[in-house]
Design goal:
The complex is a heterodimer of chains A (127) and B (477). Chain A is built from four helices and nine strands. Chain A is an alpha+beta fold and 127 residues long. Chain B has two domains: 257 residues, Aspartate Aminotransferase, domain 2 (3-Layer(aba) Sandwich), CATH 3.40.640; 127 residues, Alpha-Beta Complex (Aspartate Aminotransferase, domain 1). In chain B, the strands form three sheets. A seven-stranded mixed sheet of chain B has the order 1-7-6-5-4-2-3, with helices on both faces. Classes of the chains: A alpha+beta (127), B alpha/beta (477).
């Protein structure tokens, strides 16, 4: 199980990684492993503003369909179009090619409310 | 099981074969406009006998409650007495035309009227509408009733509906379609609604709560009257999802426990075969305050005659004509056959059967909630290294059983959800338990048997991931 030390994590298993003022959002390696083979990812339109804790999309695996929640509030500046054709990217590399959103955050202070990589590792029993 | 794989009708095709011989045309041929005529159309060309054999062989590969045990959790795949089929097929019902008018359909209207009254009695409701065609359709109708009731009271700020995480998956969809937003209420450690989380969620934006009782882990919501009181005190309403009514018939009246609106699945609890996509019936019942909002028309008796009428503040029609009438005939025949005592035995035996299986299996298949269940229970299938619930389910097919519901509800990891229903005898239950126990032993000693399963079917383990990611939906010759 890999945990991205540069990212912060929501209790609902999304990660948020700050890259030059933009927050990259996806789901953790633990989450993709629990979901199993992912077959569909539904993402919002670019330009939409969504508050922290609200759903931004859904991820569907052979086991279940699950809502995805915004780890921080902000405006969607990009979505990962590659996931349309190859949703398995989320299984193969959740922290890299399997990213879902790039978000212009409303307030960077919200990042402080998320778990550190070390704390998240503890909650999923990896530390 | 017929192990031979049946070819597609396209693969049986031979050029020039036809299933019928038409007489020579005795009228002049009309030319199609240019561009509309096709030289070739890739339809199979087959003779009648080949078609009959093809579809008969396919039908012999069907699995149904008439051939074997079907313990599909949350679906109540029980045996439905054939007498009810005979009743629904009677020429008088079958031939009645929906536009014949009240005077010529008194018998049909009387049946609807009597069934409404019986189901209102069973549910403890003031009135019932038989219009909705399925469970989720009933939910949607009920949520619209709640919306209109609150609007009439000027409570338009109530836009949220609370849904426990142990509810049926259709509940959030019904709320969203009706224009509400949903909020999930977690279960406590005992598998019942977390009352503290509920109390925190209740405010003046809450339109109501949707409760599935028994819930999807097969547990009775013990605090149902308290929950209803809390929601009512906060100004919300209580919707009951009656999909699991098979555990309660004749024992518990939801309408007397604080539930305001509720649907029952007639096609699950009240004797219509289902699982093939319909037709179903998701009747809605309501307490006195909500009854004027029921979808219509409903049947009423006036001056010794039966007629159709719209409830006073009805949300309107949700289905053409009278709902799915054949399902209503089966339900009525079933209720008359069972009577009050029979209905109680349905609930008692469905709970007894589930608990018998639970007790026989719980050592081999651990339970998340270790206590007595209602009509179904949820075990966990990761019983040996590298073994998942999917492997158990596939191996059950080799033993001749339909697999239980798997990976639902989501709050139980590796869920294996088993609902035997009341119509199975001890011999059948034991055969199923023996099969699952044998599979548990194989999981430890011969795991490859589980990973390779099923091996006794015309096609083996299907690639579900490829089917979902790259479905091929058209035959290309």
């Amino acid at each position: 199980m890999s945990i991205d030390a540069n990212a912060k994590y929501a209790a609902s298993h999304e990660y948020a990684r700050l890259e030059g003022g933009i927050v990259v959002v996806g789901i953790s390696d633990h989450a993709q492993a629990e979901l199993g083979d992912i077959v569909f990812v539904e993402l919002p339109a670019v330009g939409k503003t969504i508050a922290a804790g609200k759903t931004f999309g859904t991820v569907e695996s052979v086991k279940a369909a699950s809502d995805l929640y915004m780890p921080v509030s902000g405006t969607i500046v990009a979505v990962n179009e590659s996931l349309q054709g190859d949703p398995a990217l989320v299984n193969r590399e959740p922290h890299a090619g399997g990213w879902m959103l790039k978000v212009q955050p409303s307030s960077l202070a919200e990042m402080d409310a998320l778990m550190s990589a070390a704390d998240y590792a503890k909650t999923v029993g990896e530390a | 099981m017929n192990l031979i794989q049946e070819p597609l009708a396209f693969e049986l095709s031979s050029p020039g074969l036809v299933g019928c011989a038409l007489p020579a045309s005795d009228v002049p041929a009309a030319e199609l406009p240019a561009g509309l005529a096709r030289e070739s159309l890739a339809l199979p060309e087959l003779d009648e006998l080949t078609v009959v054999r093809h579809f008969t062989r396919l039908s012999q590969k069907n699995y149904s409650i008439d051939t074997n045990f079907y313990p599909l959790g949350s679906c109540t795949m029980k045996y439905n007495p054939k007498a009810n089929e005979a009743a629904a097929s009677a020429a008088g019902w079958r031939g009645a035309h929906p536009l014949a008018g009240d005077a010529l359909t008194q018998g049909s209207l009387e049946l609807i009227c009597r069934l409404q009254a019986s189901l209102a009695e069973i549910g403890g409701f003031a009135a019932v509408s038989l219009q909705p065609a399925a469970g989720a359709h009933g939910e949607f109708s009920g949520v619209l009733m709640i919306r209109d009731y609150l609007r009439a009271k000027g409570q338009t700020q109530r836009t949220t509906i609370l849904i426990p995480d142990s509810a049926h998956g259709t509940n959030p969809a019904s709320c969203t379609m009706a224009g509400f937003v949903t909020k999930t209420i977690p279960s406590g450690r005992d598998g019942n609604i977390d009352l503290k989380a509920l109390a925190e969620a209740l405010d003046d934006t809450v339109a109501g709560i949707m409760i599935t009782n028994p819930n999807t882990v097969g547990l009775f919501e013990r605090h149902i009257t308290k929950i209803a009181r809390m929601v009512h005190e906060a100004g919300g309403l209580v919707y009951g999802d009656g999909a699991n009514m098979n555990a309660l018939t004749g024992v518990f009246k939801p309408g007397k426990s604080g539930i305001d609106v509720m649907h029952f699945n007639l096609h699950k609890t009240f004797s219509t075969p289902h699982g093939g996509g319909g037709p179903g019936a998701g009747m809605v019942g309501a307490v006195k305050e909500l009854a004027p909002y029921l979808p219509g028309p409903i049947a009423v008796r006036k001056g010794g005659k039966y007629a159709l009428a719209m409830p006073e503040k009805s949300i309107g029609k949700v289905k053409a004509f009278y709902g799915n009438f054949g399902v209503l005939v089966r339900a009525y025949a079933y209720l008359r056959m069972e009577g009050a005592d029979g209905l109680r035995r349905i609930a008692e035996n469905s709970v007894l059967n589930a608990n018998y299986l639970r007790a026989r299996l719980e050592k081999a298949y651990p339970l998340k909630y270790k206590k007595g269940c209602m009509h179904e229970f949820v075990a966990m299938g990761d019983i040996a290294p590298g073994i998942h619930t999917l492997d158990i389910a596939k191996r059950l097919i080799d033993y001749g059983f339909h697999p239980p519901t798997i990976y639902f509800p989501l709050i139980v990891p590796e869920a294996l959800m088993i609902e035997p229903t009341e119509t199975e005898g001890k011999r059948q239950l034991d055969a199923f338990a023996d099969a699952l126990l044998a599979i548990a032993e194989e999981a430890r000693t011969k795991p490859e048997l589980l990973h390779a399963a099923p091996s006794t079917t015309p096609v083996g383990r299907l690639d579900e991931v490829a089917a979902a990611r790259c479905p091929v939906l058209c035959y290309r010759g």
